[in-house]
Amino acid sequence: MVLQRVGIIGGGQLAGMMASAAASLDLKIAIQTPNSTDTAVALADHTIFAPIDDLAATAQLAQECDWITFENEFVDLVALGKIPGAVFRPPLSSLTPLLDKYDQRCFLQNLGLPVPQFCLGHDLAAADWQFPLVFKARRHGYDGQGTFIVRDAATLQALQQQFPESGLIEEFVPFTCELAVMAARSITGEITVYPVVETVQVKQVCQRVYTAVELSSTTQTQIAKIACTILENLGTVGIMGIEFFYTAAGDVLVNELAPRTHNSGHLSIEACATSQFAQHLRAVAGMSLGDPSLTCKAAVMVNLLGYEESTSDYLAQRHQISEIPGAYLHWYHKPAVRPGRKLGHVTVILDTADRARSIAVAEQIEAIWYPHS
Ligand code: ADP
After folding, report:
1. What's the 205 CA to ligand 1 centre distance in angstroms?
2. Which of 69, 88, 107 is the last residue of a domain?
3. Would the pLDDT of 258 be above 70?
4. What is the pTM of this model?
């Protein structure tokens, strides 16, 4: 039997971790990226070196592969839709409501799902809200890029000038914590939902993920139901990350959808029966879905973020972190370090669901990783 091939538009760490998961599924991976130093280049079976918006290159990828998937959703859906014979998973139609943050909010609200209050920038005067507010660029925001907590009118005005296409404005949600869930849908409509995790953002960038969440079973069920509603209504195929705010009153609000593998699911590589990367590939390749359940008492994931401009490989710190019992360190081999850049992550498998232990381990990793002030 001829091995089947999945094409990925993009070559960063998400594509890299997908490529690592492919062998056990008897799949080959081809990627499209312009950068020879991208994480996935060394892990994929084949690379088409071209910008991710190079349509001729994607047409070639489509000829070489059975299916095409995405590392991120910032793609030109209209242009991709014109490539003959390309089979996109998730289907392009399922991405249409998601690429613009305002459209995404409207999509969720129209499904009757709980979301923060929102409006377009030019409608704010009528909304009569108080500061703080949250301003979000409607397109291409990720890792906090394009998301701003706004405390006064002068800052708001400056942002509206910087993003003249009118940003999305939201109420500031004074959440007690942020939650996330990964969920996958197969071509037959089967849906699996991973365990709900807590995520901790610093300066709007994910820093930690814990499986040891203190949530009632009612809230867990509510989140799983929301996930199913979203995936079914999008008609997606593949995995999706869904982020939530959890309030002091016990309310859950959907913050954002990521129609792809996601940072909040990285710990599934070691902590779940099926990793998010394998699950996505299973869905893309038309297989039945794997078991998403935890195979350990708890797990914690810590992102190793750049904190300086450097070309260091941080070998000594990586070695020290790897020696923590139960630790699995993933290093993305990025050639240049910048503050805030995701350089790697570490997942630690724990034999207790005691939340204090998860927090202590995350602090231990960060004390090794970040220089002492
Ligand atoms: P991105 O697409 O850049 O990840 P998000 O919308 O997920 O942007 O926002 C990044 C982070 O900013 C969130 O995880 C949260 O910590 C904070 N944030 C975003 N929107 C709000 C809000 N309405 N209220 C309070 N904090 C918010």
Report:
1. 9
2. 88
3. yes
4. 0.97
